[in-house]
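Internal tracking record. Fields below are filled automatically when a chain is submitted to the structure queue. Please do not edit lines marked as system-generated. If the sequence contains nonstandard residues, flag them in the REMARKS field before resubmitting.
Queue: standard
Priority: normal
Entity type: single polypeptide chain
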Amino acid sequence: MPNAEFNKSATSMIAMQGASRGSNFKFSDTPLNLNPVTQDEVNKALALFQSARVKEAFERAQLLLRRDPDVVPLLELSGAALRKLGKLREAYPFFERSLQISGPSAHTHFNIGVLLFDLCRYSDAAQHLAQALELDPQNQNMAQTLGLCLNAMGRYLDTVNLLTPWLKPGQSKGATLNILGLALYHLNCFEEAEFCYNAVNEPPQEVAEAQSHLGVLAKAQGDTQKARLHYIKALELAPTSATAHRNLAAVTQYEVGHPHLEALKILAKQPEQSIANQIEIEFALYKAHQDIKDFETAFTHLKKGNHLKRDRIGYSIEADEALFAHLRQVFDKPAPEAHSALPFRPIFIVGLPRSGTTLTEQILCGCDGVTGAGELQYATTAMVQHLQEMNLSGENSMPAEQVAALRAELSEKMMLHSKGAPVLIDKMPLNLRWVGPLLAAFPEARVVHTTRSAADNCWSLYKVCFQGDGNGFAYDLEAAERFHSLSMELMQQWNELYPDRIHHLDHETLTKSPEEQARALVEFCDLEWSENCLHPERQTQAILTASALQVRKPIYRKKTPDWTPYQAQLAAMSGLFRTELE
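SYSTEM-GENERATED OUTPUT FOLLOWS
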C-alpha cells in the first residue's frame, strides 16, 4: 500500500472501523509542521497502523510527538490507535488536542463524537456529531452515526426526522434503513420498521444487521421460532456478529455439546475483539452454560460481562445519590398542578427495571380502552432540561409555568402513542425519579409502583445486558443494592406527598394471589375489569423489554429464587445475598 498523503482522498484509505458500521474515524489533512518531523516519518507511522501493527504505530507516533507535540495527524493517529487497543479514555485527550490546534472541522468533531459514543457518553457525542454534520451536511456517514447516537439516547423521533430525507434513490441506504427501522420499532411503528429492514439489500453486513433486527421484532411479537430463523440468517451473512449471537442465545435452549455453544466458545477466543463484542459474547455464554446447568462457568462469564459493561459505561452511584438527594430537596412539597384539555389519561408504571413493570402493563392492557406505549423516554428528557433551567434560575421548587410546560410537552409526544385510546400507559421504570412533577403536570394520572425483594430484583438486573448506557447500576451488585435503597426512599417521599394517587404492587404478592391483586390494581386505575387481565400471555401487542419471553407465559410463582444456584458467589460479592441466606 502506498504511503498515505494528508488529503481527503488518501486519508480515506486509512479510515478505521468505528463504533458500528458507518462510524469511521477520519484523519486530518491539516498541513504538517515539517520541522523537525518529516512527512515521510508520519507516513511510516500511518503505514504501521494500516498493516494492523497498532501498538507499534502508537509507539512510533509518541516518539515523533516528543519532537513536535502539535502534529495533528499524529495526534489523531495516537487517538485512533488507543481506541483500537480498547483504551478509550486514554484516546480522548489526543482528539481533544487535535481540535484545539486545528480548530472546528467536520472530521475532528466526528472523531471525538465516535469516541464519546464508544464511551457511552451519548449526550456529549451527539453534540460533536451534530457539529460535524452541520459543517459537512452532505455526509451520510455522519448522519447515520448521529442517528445511532440519538437512538441510544431514546430520541427516536429525532432520528426519524434526521434520516428520512436521506432515503433517496441512488443513495447507499443500508445503514440508514437499519438505524431508521430501529427508531420506528421503538416508536411502536412495527410495520414501518419491518418495511425498512426488508428493504435493506446491500451490503451483506447491513443485510445481516437487518435480519437480526427482524429477529428482535419477531421475538417482541412472541414468535420465537421466526426470531430464531432470522438470527441464523444473520449469522450466515456475518458469522462473527456478537449481537446476533447473543440474540440467538436468548431464544435457544442449550444442551451439552450444542453446536452454537461450541461456536460461542471459539468466537470468545478470537483476538482483538472490541469491548462491545466481548460484552455480548460473555452474556451469551452465561445463558448457554446456565441452560446446561454448568453454573460455575456460567457465573464466570456473567461476572466478566458485567465487569466489562460497567467499565465501558463508567457508571457512578455517587452521581445518582446526588440526584436523588436533590430531588428530595426540590420536591419536598407538591408542585402547582397544571390543567388543560387532554384526549387521554396517563398511567405511569414505575419501579426498578425487572421489578414487574412489563407484567403490570400487560395486566392493565387486558382492560378495554387501554394502550400500552412501552418505555417512553420523554419524561426523562424533559425533566433533565427542567432541572437544568431551575438550577440556572436559582429556583428551589418547580414553578407553575414549568409544570404547565411539562404537561404540554409530554402530552404532545405521548399522543403519538395513544392510538386513539382513552388511557395510555407509560411504563418507563425510572420515571420513579419524576413521580412528583408528573403527578403535578397530570392531575388525572395514576402511578403504579412495582416492587420486588431487593435480592430478587438486584439479581434480575445483574443477569441482563441492557441496551445503551442506561441502568448502569445493574452491572455492579453493590451499586444495584444502593440504587434499590435510593429508589425506595424517594418513592416513600412521593407517597407521602400523593398518598391517594400511587398504588404499590409487590411482585411476589401478585404471583401468590393474582386475581385479588389484579382486581385491586384495575380498580385503583379506574378501569373496567376484564378476565383478560388474568391472562397477560394472551396479549398480542409487541413487548420490547427484557421480559418479552417471560410475560408470554401465564402468571406463575417460582418455588425458589433464580439466584439460588449462584448463592455462594453472590454472597461473596454482596451483603444483600448474605442476609438472604441467613
